[in-house]
Design goal:
By secondary structure, the protein is of the alpha/beta class. The chain folds into three domains: about 170 residues, ATPase, nucleotide binding domain (Nucleotidyltransferase, domain 5); about 190 residues, ATPase, nucleotide binding domain (Nucleotidyltransferase, domain 5, 2-Layer Sandwich), CATH 3.30.420; about 200 residues, Carbamoyltransferase, C-terminal domain (DHBP synthase). It is built from 20 helices and 22 strands.
């Protein structure tokens, strides 16, 4: 049984293909149309998934979608009436993260089947199975976890009218326990402060997380007034600080907030200690509330396993607190926790929960995208008239370049799904260099100075370099660890201002070529850690060999290791 899963008309438009309950591929439309966080109908991604599965649209048995549009209408009417007349401003506000007004977005969602019919010249419009957004998030984590039962926590900005959901998974069912409704939302709270600090809401929240490492606890106590925790997993925002519930993304904060915490920072303003302190206060608040919710969820379910998904789950500092400060024993953080995840989450929910198939697929890899052959790669290299050579051991040759201080584009195997590059579409470099972070930020990534770079470390060596919460591994870069004190001077390029690192543990079984690269680097240097950042430059992660070459040529890095080929400038 083939099921095609879609997300679109929000952000992170994606197509996924599952076969008999197993994920075959996950393709984000942005990788193909080159529009970051695109909301558009995933026309290219659908065709790519069919090509990877070697099937046609006629082979698809079911199509699932990550949202129930009509369910949102009910919640929106209630919301408009509750906050009337100020809520009339919402009619002029764009939907979160895209340029669509609600009515247009609703119509497009309801007509996604028509778009498929048009794309493939079908005789009739295919039936679309609409799945609630947070159930799709929950399914994306639980049904691919190794657990037969688990407490499930999903939180983001909103889905229909739900912002946070507590649920319980057992075998092939997911049961709702509690839902928190908008405007009370941890995701929207984080987006509101992201906007206040001069960044782009819905997309730059992780910049604020990076800034928090430079903060002092000046506003930590004051920020506690922004949320009232009610117990049993429920909370409400103190709406006297906010305006987004009546004005949408056009006005996030109230005058009361500005009077208490100062004026909004413009994007071009200098970073000040106030900026850092606000970021820290927000981060501590989110961690505090997240831990309270998780602890209450444990009290309700008594499960030793926790699954987490939704955009807020990409906050690795929060995840560290969830592991450190809750009684759960086992944790699964879905690495594709943004809105790409509900594309396959909706399909898994339908396959397991609705159709009652037995749960039997465990997620162990994000390498779910397209792969290119050496012939494909060599053709592109010739088109660009590049200086290249083929090697029998790409990992060994590349490790030598890294040890010499070179910055290397690493393009291998199947593309990763989700927001993080995990060793197949990565830029890699020497973790030992004090100047490498600044060089990467200024001359390659062209981004802010405060944004840290993640370490990729051999799985079997991780505890030599990092203190991980409850000795957890971090195969998907979803956890922060503290850099071991006597290693901070050895790997300064991946040690953040607060002596933490967003760790990526690399398994020989899951990604043998990338594991070998780090192993060869260790043989040369005695250090089993390299820098890993996404292969891009203010654009979606590169997808094709052509995109990799173009990024390599226009940025200041030295070597491209692509397939079995080494390219130098």
């Amino acid at each position: 049984m083939y099921i095609l899963g879609l997300t679109c008309y929000a952000h992170e438009s994606t197509c996924s293909l599952i076969k008999d309950g197993k994920i075959i591929c996950v393709i984000e439309e942005e990788r193909l149309n080159r529009e970051k966080h695109t909301w558009r109908y995933p026309k290219l991604a659908i065709q790519e998934c069919l090509d990877i599965g070697s099937i046609t649209i006629d082979d698809i048995d079911h199509i699932t979608y990550f949202w129930k549009p009509w369910k949102e209408i009910t919640g929106n009417i209630y919301h408009m009436l509750r906050y009337f007349p100020a809520s009339l401003n919402l009619l002029r506000s764009e939907s979160g993260g895209n340029s669509l007004l609600f009515v247009r977005r609703f119509i497009m969602m309801m007509n996604v089947g028509k778009k498929i019919k048009e794309q493939f010249n079908l005789k009739r419009k295919p039936k679309i199975i609409f799945v609630e957004h947070h159930l799709a998030h929950a399914a994306s984590a639980f049904f691919v976890s190794p657990y037969s039962d688990a407490a499930i926590l999903t939180f983001d900005g909103r889905g229909e009218s739900t912002s946070t959901m507590l649920s319980y998974g057992q075998n092939n069912t997911i049961t709702k326990i509690k839902e928190v409704k908008v405007p009370h939302s941890l995701g929207h709270l984080y987006s509101a402060i992201t906007d206040y600090l001069g960044f782009k809401s819905f997309y730059d929240e992780w910049k604020v997380m990076g800034l928090s490492a430079y903060g002092k606890d000046t506003y930590v106590d004051d920020f506690k007034d922004l949320i009232v925790y009610l117990g049993s997993g429920e909370y409400i925002l103190n709406l006297k600080y906010f305006k987004f519930h009546t004005h949408g993304t056009t006005l996030w904060m109230s005058d009361y907030f500005y009077e208490k915490f100062g004026p909004k920072r413009a994007y071009t303003d200098e970073y000040t200690q106030h900026t850092y302190d606000i970021a820290l206060a927000l981060q501590k608040l989110i961690e505090n509330i997240g831990v309270k919710i998780a602890n209450d969820l444990y009290s309700i379910t008594k499960s030793k396993n926790l699954c987490v998904a939704g955009g807020v789950a990409l906050n690795v500092l929060l995840n560290k607190s969830l592991v450190s400060k809750t009684p759960f024993e086992n944790y699964f953080f879905q690495p594709i926790s943004n809105d790409a995840g509900p594309s396959f989450g909706s399909s898994l929910y339908y396959y397991y929960h609705t159709l009652k198939h037995n749960k039997r697929f465990d997620f162990n890899s994000v390498y779910l995208g397209t792969e290119y052959s050496n012939n494909d790669i060599e053709s592109v290299l010739n088109d660009f008239s590049l200086n290249y050579k083929k090697t029998k051991n790409i990992s060994k040759v590349t490790a030598k370049y890294i040890a010499e201080g070179k910055i290397v584009g690493w393009f291998q195997g199947r593309m990763e799904a989700g927001p993080r590059a995990l060793g197949n579409r990565s830029i890699v470099s020497d973790s030992r260099s004090k100047h490498m972070k600044d060089r990467l930020n200024e001359r390659v990534k062209r981004r802010e100075f405060f944004r840290p770079f993640a370490p990729s470390v051999l799985e079997e060596k991780v505890f030599e370099y990092f203190d991980m919460p409850k000795n957890q591994l971090s195969p998907y870069m979803m956890l922060v660890g503290d850099v071991v004190k006597d290693k901070r001077d050895i790997i300064p390029a991946v040690t953040h201002a607060d002596n933490t690192a967003r760790v990526h543990t690399v398994s020989k079984e899951v990604n043998p070529k990338y594991w070998e690269l780090i192993s060869e680097f260790e043989k040369l240097t005695g250090v089993a850690v390299i820098i890993n950042t996404s292969f891009n430059e203010n654009e979606p992660i590169v997808h094709t060999p052509k995109q990799a070459v173009e990024c390599f040529l226009r940025t200041d890095f030295d070597v491209l290791s692509i397939g079995d080929y080494i390219v130098t400038k």
